[in-house]
Amino acid sequence: MSSDPVLHSRRSLTLRFDIPISHTREFWDGLKEGKFLVTRCKKCGNISFPPQSDCPRCMSNEHEWVELKREGKLLTYTLVQVTPASFVDNDPYIVAIAEFQGGIKILAWLEGAKLDKIGPGIQVRLETRVSKEGNPYYVFTLPQSL
Ligand SMILES: [Zn+2]
User: Fold this and answer.
1) Ligand 1 mean position to 39 CA, how many Å?
2) Ligand 1 centroid – CA 69 distance (Å)
């Protein structure tokens, strides 16, 4: 069996994203300060993440920014072994969904976890980070005992 000739490229690609954040600025500013902010409806008390300017429960547009409790429960996760182009420099990583205060479900990378040590129902903690480019983001971490 003969293989078709191919040309190999070893060029690196740089991806640039410009994401407008005018409606969620408080959230991103909070992350930079180590806070994880969500919106709470002033009328019915419903908390929302991603932040919402209109309450999905009662449609009120009066909200305030409050810090979310950091402890949550792992619901599900997967190991990403074939990384997308934008994460090609990363080792395989775990993406997880965890549930927090008020039933809020959040998707994030789970740092420092070994697959044989985790499972649905374990406690995770929401942590804030700042990337090398200066962009804030968030991850889940495990209690020291795991
Ligand atoms: Zn409401």
Assistant:
1) 10
2) 19
Q: How far is the CA of 105 from the centre of ligand 1 (A)?
A: 18
Classify burial at 99, counting beta carbons within 10 Å of its beta carbon; exposed 0-12, middle 13-18, buried 19 or more.
middle
Which residue from 67, 65, 40, 38 is spatially nearest to 55, judged by alpha carbons? 40
pLDDT tens digits for 29-82?
999 999 999 999 999 999 999 998 899 999 999 999 999 999 999 999 999 998
Single pTM value for the model? 0.81
Type and span of the H or E element at 80: strand 71-80
Question: What CATH code would you report for 69-146?
Answer: 2.40.50.840
Q: How far is the CA of 46 from the centre of ligand 1 (A)?
A: 5
What are the boundaries of each domain within the chain?
21-68, 69-146
Rounded distance from Cα 20 to ligand 1 centre (Å):
25
